[in-house]
Predict the 3D structure of the following.
Amino acid sequence: MEKLKKYVSVKDEDDFYHQGAVELLIFNFLLILTILTIWLFKNHRFRFLHETGGAMLYGLVMGLIIRYVTKSPDIESGTVYECERLKSGPSTLLINITNQVYEYQYKREISHHNVNGHQGNAMLQKMTFDPSIFFNILLPPIIFHAGYSLKKRHFFRNLGSILAFAFLGTAISCLVIGLIMYGFVKAMVHIGQLKQWEFHFTDCIYFGSLMSATDPVTVLAIFHELNVDTDLYTLLFGESVLNDAVAIVLTHSISTYSPKENPNAFDAAAFFQSVGNFLGIFAGSFAMGSSYAVVTALISFMHLTKFTKLCEFPMLETGLFFLLSWSAFLSAEAAGLTGIVAVLFCGVTQAHYTYNNLSADSKMRTKQLFEFMNFLAENVIFCYMGLALFTFQNHIFNPLFIFGAFVAVFVARASNIYPLSFLLNLGRKQKIPRNFQHMMMFSGLRGAIAFALAIRDTSCQPQQVMFSTALLLVFFTVWVLGGGTTPMLTWLHIRVGVDPDEDLKAKAGSQSASNFDKNTTKAESAWLFRIWYGFDHKYLKPLLTHTGPPLTSTLPEWCNPVARLLTSPSAYGDQLKDGDTVYIINNDELAENCESSAHTPLPAQDSTGSIQATGKEDIQEGDLGLGGYKLQLQHPAGQLQKNSLA
Amino acid sequence: MEKLKKYVSVKDEDDFYHQGAVELLIFNFLLILTILTIWLFKNHRFRFLHETGGAMLYGLVMGLIIRYVTKSPDIESGTVYECERLKSGPSTLLINITNQVYEYQYKREISHHNVNGHQGNAMLQKMTFDPSIFFNILLPPIIFHAGYSLKKRHFFRNLGSILAFAFLGTAISCLVIGLIMYGFVKAMVHIGQLKQWEFHFTDCIYFGSLMSATDPVTVLAIFHELNVDTDLYTLLFGESVLNDAVAIVLTHSISTYSPKENPNAFDAAAFFQSVGNFLGIFAGSFAMGSSYAVVTALISFMHLTKFTKLCEFPMLETGLFFLLSWSAFLSAEAAGLTGIVAVLFCGVTQAHYTYNNLSADSKMRTKQLFEFMNFLAENVIFCYMGLALFTFQNHIFNPLFIFGAFVAVFVARASNIYPLSFLLNLGRKQKIPRNFQHMMMFSGLRGAIAFALAIRDTSCQPQQVMFSTALLLVFFTVWVLGGGTTPMLTWLHIRVGVDPDEDLKAKAGSQSASNFDKNTTKAESAWLFRIWYGFDHKYLKPLLTHTGPPLTSTLPEWCNPVARLLTSPSAYGDQLKDGDTVYIINNDELAENCESSAHTPLPAQDSTGSIQATGKEDIQEGDLGLGGYKLQLQHPAGQLQKNSLA
């Protein structure tokens, strides 16, 4: 008896493994389809449905199949059992069923009205995986890659505007969406669609904050392919990267804003506490991320006399790089900060310092590894979004709320872009032209972050309404706005086929004509960044990398013994290496620096000489993103030329 | 009220995310420590504790800390609740606790005597992760990498012996361990330590099958570093790779062997059904794995007129390669076959066909990606094994059983290696010398696979006894046998510092002196493989890759129209490309082939010319395994020389 029973149980567990395999297989299948589709699209130069849109579409179809084709073998799961002896839900529950003890693990809390909808399909439940997988595993590589592949030169050139759009713009967007939604909620109460208590003002603001994370991955991919004007690209890229971080911290701060008495009344103390929270979490996460990167830089830089350098072992170096960057995310999460912000700045700092210390082999390896992980994670998320429309079981589609959200999102985007552009243009030497503003307005896509924030908590009805609405907004913006990018570019007469370096030099040249001097550049980059760059160039770069002037020449004389100890031997005599630092100081040396740095021999000696040069040039561009192909579009007619494959 | 409650729940869920982050962070921390240790060891040329041993040690210490330092906040979890209304454990359970519904997910079945041991530490429970993660996520990259990095030339040279050790040897080992353990169990029953019904003969055989998976990852890493004699390396590598597959299928077949009446009696029908199962599952998995690889080869080979080849997009190519290989594993699991076997042969086939079609960039990418994933997965598993000793909550350490297992494992290894070597030496031209046999005997380490098989089911007492014993055996063999590898090599006077190519030529030369002719090689590789190689060279290679003679010349004349359609244009005129195929036909052309193929231009054109050559040479060696460093040991004194870093 015991025997037979045991083997039955083994068989059951085997079934469980097979189930896990089936779910993973479904995702693999969707990804394979997506890749084949991308290949097809690339061949036909089809740009009206981007790969992410395609992934979403396949997910949608698969969700439909799972929902309506698979049977529901698990009828028990709709029943609710009473348990009088417990006070709260423990993380593990042991249950005695017909003399056999089963262990159950806490999954989530669900509200009463969802219990009925729960009857049925075990497959659907399996396909809706744990939101913590999004946060801990899928998002970090995407965000890290964004930070690691930041085009630093162009980014810092537009830093002021980017910060304004990311911080002020996101706050405006959050507030505008919140206010409009509150109006709609009031109207819904008025016509009797909602009971008063269901939606508070804080819920509306919460919705505003999560819908403020723009994610123009589709748009940027097209921009990159078409070589759209670099300033526009940088503005949108910088905004979307930072704005994800801002939106996440904002969402977190709002969810901790709990006024003491009436949830609808404005509580100044709670508000300031939230603002304090926001600043504290942002600063803490920033510090956490950067310090992990600095540790990585120091480890990879170490050249103790008895030790072979770590860069002699590319595999260990890559492993350490990967693990420390991921740890930055996890530590921030574990400490109650925001991992996304930490990993973003970790990526930026890694690219700035650690990358210079890596061996040529590791440069290639890390670049390709993060690119690959980004690619997979992104497509998994978009597939999953498609799946979620049919497999998620607690959707609440409220037509008025959805309509309101569409209106709110577009009004909020407009009241973010146009007023801020106007204000920024007052101060900018290089104005943001009208057509750029329209394009930025148009590129306000919502994607992975908005979805991940919305799915994080779907236990109550308001959250479920918000989740369903957010999902529809993501679908609409990715398919309609994403698909409309190429026509929109043509229609707005935006320059395409621009070489970033040429562009930079041309713009610099057009400003100051022939007598180009240091003051122009200095005036352009704000004083704060000049100070930072001086400090970085003189002290941090020599301390953390092999580049920059030796510390012995930059530190005061009495520090000499320490300075000599801390400076890499290779730092003496090649101060011209670090192209982008020098750039901030003096713009017109740039071209020569780029060339010279591409040919300076790097410390590691191996046979792949040509990688070194490629690697070096790449990071100066920061272009780690898109698998090495380029398509050129003829300007301005928008006709497609033969693609020149790099 | 509702409001406050909602925010409390948000806070709870946040805590859950943070928990997930903490667990991942612990693993990250262990891996970082391991990498730093490896670096230290490499510097000090310390070879008595291998990285996997180090990872296990750190895991052990961390497990100790988690067990005795963390508090146990979750007192509820020891209580068993009765549920009369249910007949069996559903996959999801909804429980109403103080008017709030919680959803619980089925985790596992536990036996009554474990319920008490369950009281307490939630952290311990969190650290013991789902065994399906081992099977679906951590094992596939390790096994795939083993297949992908197979040194084909040396492997096929010793194929007969390898198959004998892997199939016959594993069966012998399984049976011997089973019989000895059954003796010990009888003795334990006799002295009253066990009740009769607890351990059946099938349980003993089950234990034998799971302990028969040798995993000499430590030994092979040291062999590789020291360039130990290639034949010995190949025999051990080939045996361990195939024997994992055999042991897994064997375990599966034995668990389905359920005699009708008395479980102790021998039931011929059930036995033959198990043997049939074994053969069916093995063949099915082999077919599944190879066909996925063939599909990958076909896709990457396709050159439709309207399409740019896939190899123009290295990222898509790498992605497809990765996903299809993983799908081979998942499909086999989902179909009730053995994923490990599927992914192993998928790896071998991918290396044989698909690799030749990849662009130079993708060759690098896939090689590094799989190497990296293998490295991470391996170290995660060994860390986890260390952790499991203290965090796993249902250990049963039975001293007599453990002693019996140690005896059984060594007796079984001896009765596998020595008799088989004797028999093989009767037929082998190149005998397996005495010291090689001793070394193979000594290298019978147990590792990841034995552990993964043992942890797969720990619901009953016999399984728990087996799991605890297997864990101790892994510890002992990895630390003691693994650490003793270098001294043992010296003691047995085994050649080190051997160049594989030189070695092969020298051995071939010594056999037939100056008048080396084709017949020697032909006689050495059995007739079955000559036929297979002829077929492969003439039909499969031209069909699936760009190498080999054009199909038009190998197929009968009436097939010409079809042949012309299927042959790659680049196949005409470069028949000398595929070094290892030609090798089987004629050994002494090898050196020239290697050189010529290393310099033949590959289809994809990019700037990294030197990678191409490296990539090409690498696959001919199949050496994708160990991050590009070499250590040389002076023979025979065993003194360590300065390491020459490649």
